[in-house]
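TODO from last week: model SecDF P1 head subdomain domain-containing protein.
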Amino acid sequence: MPPTQGVPPRPAPPPVRPLTSRVSDGRTAPLPAAAPGAVPDSDQRRRERAAARRREAAEAKRSRAAQRARRPTAADRAAAQHRSALLVMVLTLGLLIAAVVVTGGMVAASLRTRPVTLASPLHIYPVKMTTPGQCPAGTPGITGQVGAGPTCYWLNRGIAIHKVADLRVQRVKGAPGYDVAVTLRPVDRRAFATLTRMTVGHDLAFVVRDRLVTLPRVDTAVLDGKVAVTGSPDRAAAERLVRELKGR
């Protein structure tokens, strides 16, 4: 049947080409198809933000827990107070001990005496025997004055002391009167101990400048160098004996 006059024929549609993408070799290759179950970009970003918020919340929770763990409890505060009190007590005790030591050292220093240098040597002789009257010339003895008159004290070999550690007057403990306390130096103690061992029960003549100063009796051996000359009725007599022993 002849075409209808006045209606132009409809052009044929172009052929459908597959969607392609260019590659480096000039040929075309089909684009990869979308993976099944793919999530749109907006949903993915929301999920990522939500995960980041959960991580931040978890981190903040752990930080708060760590702060609570570091916060001292009542027991911790009590223990710290106890340690502080103990430390203060130890420091106070140490200061008290140091004060006692210093005070004791000062007292000991005040009580410590200086060596006494004698103006003339003190000669100490064992008395061998006594005879009335003056000692004959050339006799190894010394004449002393007693109530009945002069007496000759025959002497054995003795020792000479030039310096003593201490020489002082002291009261007699438990009895009236005064003593003269003589403390020998270590260099003279051994010789004096030997001398007193041999003369227990006998007299010793203390001679200064060829003059008999005192005549004490040895009651026991003196091993520590501490000699007490007794018999002074008052302090003035004891002080006079100290001066005579010093050679003044």
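Done. Helices lie at 41-70, 74-111, 186-198, 235-246.
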